[in-house]
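Hello, quick one for you while I still have it in my head. A protein chain has come my way and I'm curious about its shape. Can you walk me through what the C-alpha cells say about the fold? No rush at all, and the record is pasted right below.
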Amino acid sequence: MMASGFALFDTAIGRCGLAWGEHGISGVQLPEMGERETRARMLQRFPAAGEAVPPPEVQRVIDRIAALLRGEVSDLSTIALDIDEVPTFHRRVYEAARAIPPGMTLSYGDVAARAGAPGAARAVGQALGRNPFPIVVPCHRVLAAGGKIGGFSAQGGIATKRRMLAIEGVQLDGTRPLFDSDAALGFDPDLAVQHLRASDSVLARVVDEVGPFRMRLRPAPSVFAALAESIVYQQLNGKAAAAIFARMCALFPRGRPTAGRLLRNSEERLRGAGLSGSKLLSLRDLAQKAEDGAIPTLGEIQNMADETIIERLSEVRGIGRWTAEMLLIFRLGRPDVLPVDDFGVRKGFAIAYDREQPSPKELAAYGARWQPYRTVASWYLWRVVERAAARKVMPLSAAEEEP
C-alpha cells in the first residue's frame, strides 16, 4: 500500500506533475506557465497529498511518461489508475481513449461509439475536458470531426496538443492553417468565461454588461507577414496604417510580403509606399532575422511557450513585448496573455473597478486570479474602454483601437 503524494518531473514539453495513492495514479498535470504554477495546481488538485520522493513503482510510471514525450516507444495503457471518483461514463470514455496507440487518432464520435454511446460526441468532449490523467489517458489523440484538431484545456491550448501529437509523429493535414481567420481558438471560450465569473465578481459584472466573448483570430500568411504588419501599424492611426501597408503589399507577388523579397526591394520603392526611415530599418531587420532562421515559422511557433516567443521576437528592432503579446493574442489565440503595459487594458481596469489606473506591476498581481484565461479578461477590459468612449462620444487612442 502506497501513501499518497505528488512529484514534479521534467519532460520534453515542460515540467509535469503526477499524484499517487493507495489505488494507483490519482492524477497527472501537464505543465503550467512555470514550475511554481504547476506545483500550485497540484496542491489545489490534491490538497491531502504532500510533495514527496516517488516510490519505485511510481518512478517507473514517471520514466515511461517522460520516454513517451521524448518520442520513444512507451506503452502507458497498463498503468494502474485510481478511478474510484470517476463517473461511470467517463470511465468508459477513458478506457476507449487509452486504447488509441501513439501516432494514431480517433474522432470524438469514434470514441463515443467505442464507449457504447453512439452520437454522444459532445459528452465525450466534456469527459475528456475533465480528464484527470492526461498523457496516460491520451485525450490529445482525440480530434474533432474531419480531422480538425478540436480543443484542449491544458496550458497552451491546441499548441500543446499539436506538440504532443507531433512528438508521436501525427500529421494534422486536415487542420486549418494557423493564421486562418476561421481557425478555432486554442481554448474553450465558455470554460474561460465561467472561470472568470467564478474568480472575480467585478469581472463577472463586466461580462454581463458586454455579453459573450467574441474575439476572432486575425489572418496572415506567415509569422513574418504578421510582424511586418504590426511594425507598419505602430504609432499610426488605423486608416493611414492600412493605406501604407496595402501599398507595401502591392510590391509583392499576390500581395504577400516575404522576407527575401523585402530584402531585395530597393529602399526607394519601399519608401515610396509611405514607410518612414525608422519603419524601413525595422522591417529590414525583421526580414534579415527571418532569413537567418531567428524568426520562428508557423510550424515552429505552435510548439513554443509564450515567454519564449516574446523573447525571440523582442530581439527584432521595433518589436517589443507588447507587439509580441498582440501576436500571441490575436494571431495565435493563446489563452493566458495579460499585456500589463497596454494603456487600454489598464484604463479598462480603472473604469471597471472604479479606482486609479494600476501600474503594470499592480495589474499583474491582481490579474493572477484570472489565470489561465488572462487573454479573455484583457479582451473584456478593452471592451469596457470602448463602451465608456461610446457613452462619452470621444475617439479612442491608437492603442485602444488595436484590439
Q: What stands out?
A: The first strand starts at residue 5 and ends at 11.
